[in-house]
Amino acid sequence: MAIPRFSSLLRSRKFAKSDCLVASIGFVLIVFFLSFFFDPTSDSVPSVDRSPPIKSPPDLVKLTLSSKAKERGAFCLDGSLPGYHFHKGSGSGSKSWLLHLEGGGWCSTVASCSARAMTMLGSSTYFEDEVDFQGVLSSDPSQNPEFFNWNRVKIRYCDGASFAGHPEAEFKNGTRLFFRGQLIWEAIMDELLSMGMSDAKQGILTGCSAGGLATLIHCDYFRDHLPKDAAVKCVSDGGFFLNVPDVLGHPTMRSFYHDVVNLQGVDKSLDQNCVAKPEPSKCMFPQSFVNNIKTPVFLVNPAYDFWQIQNVLVPASTDLDKSWAKCRLNIKECDAAQMKVLHGFRSSLMDAIGKFHQNKAGGMFIDSCFSHCQTLMSATWHSPTSTRIENKTIAESVGDWYFNRKPVKLIDCPYPCNPSCYNLNFT
Ligand SMILES: *[C@@H]1O[C@H](CO)[C@@H](O)[C@H](O)[C@H]1NC(C)=O
Ligand SMILES: *[C@@H]1O[C@H](CO)[C@@H](O)[C@H](O)[C@H]1NC(C)=O
Question: Which ligand number lies closest to the CA of residue 385?
Answer without folding.
Answer: 2
